[in-house]
Design brief:
Layout: H1 8-13, H2 19-27, H3 65-88, H4 93-125
Helix pairs in contact: 2-4, 3-4
Length: about 140
């Protein structure tokens, strides 16, 4: 199995896109390219294209990564907080279970949209899944 390095023309064809600004714009629900227009139409539906700069988003492939990241982050926060409260013996079992479940659901809802925006921004910055002007 051999690996061919891209030619100089392929490397010079595209300018480098900044990763962190694209992630931050996506987390705020803005277009990762211009940062002005909204990334989402309603809920978690990503717009087909930016109304300001014309960047197309219809080919994004966020799929399950935002949900996996959400489970990972919320699970670590809620389990750690629950174990700390259990060790301190502040609450009895049922109030602690109820509070943990409610906080997990609330935190998951709060994080889902920023995480999906960050994944779309990541794909845009790395020119993945059609954002580079070519098919994958």
């Amino acid at each position: 199995m051999t690996y061919e390095t891209p030619s100089a023309n392929q490397n010079d064809e595209f300018e480098k896109r900044p990763l962190m600004p694209a992630l931050m714009k996506g987390a705020r629900g803005r277009c990762p390219s211009c940062g002005v227009s909204h990334l989402f139409t309603n809920g978690l539906t990503v717009q087909d294209k930016c109304h300001v700069c014309g960047e197309e988003f219809h080919h994004h492939r966020a799929d399950d990564l935002p949900a996996y990241l959400n489970i990972f982050i919320v699970g670590h926060i809620v389990v750690a907080a629950t174990m700390i409260v259990m060790d301190m013996k502040i609450l009895s079992l049922w109030p602690l279970v109820s509070l943990s479940a409610l906080s997990a659901v609330a935190l998951a809802f709060l994080l889902m949209r920023p995480l999906k925006g960050m994944v779309v921004g990541l794909q845009w910055a790395l020119r993945m899944h059609g954002f580079g002007g070519h098919d994958d």
